[in-house]
Amino acid sequence: MREYLQNTWLGIYTVLVGMKVTFKHLFTPSVTIQYPEVKVPLPERVRNRLYVNMDDCIGCDQCSRACPVSCIEIETVKSLPTEDLGLTSNGKKKALWVTKFDIDIAKCCFCQLCVFPCPTDCIYMTNVYEYSEFERDNLIYKFATLTSEEAVEKKANLEKFNAEKEAQKAAAAKAKEEQKPADKE
Length: 185
Known about the structure:
Blueprint: H1 2-26, E1 50-52, H2 62-66, E2 72-78, E3 96-104, E4 123-125, E5 140-142, H3 148-184
Antiparallel strand pairs: 1-4, 2-3, 3-5
């Protein structure tokens, strides 16, 4: 009988010890945050998603060349002399149409090496760190402001301009050749 009472007391005692721990933690304030609604403040120098301000981009391709994992793809087309592309916020004159400016965030190693060589400071790291996607192709961010039809049009205009220029050069060379025999006589 004595053993039965000891076992009963031991059972009640261990439950009370467990309840003491439970009640102690029940009234302490919570240290967790409600993540989707409340976000942790980020450090000042955090490196997250890249962003490109296409109004300032001059298409110099320096960010692409500095990228160690080749996640930046840039294609440009030279503008015609009659076209005015405007100025960047730094006052640099734009001379190239940026027909393609893609960044593959799935490849990006967030090293920030592409940010520093940019002469117009148009590419920078943002504080956005949530960018999970169901499809990997959705991690390729397309920053070019031109549509694919406009890009094809700009390329065709440049080819047409270059062809006209070559035709003018050929006509001038032909006229010069025709003048040489006339000058010798």
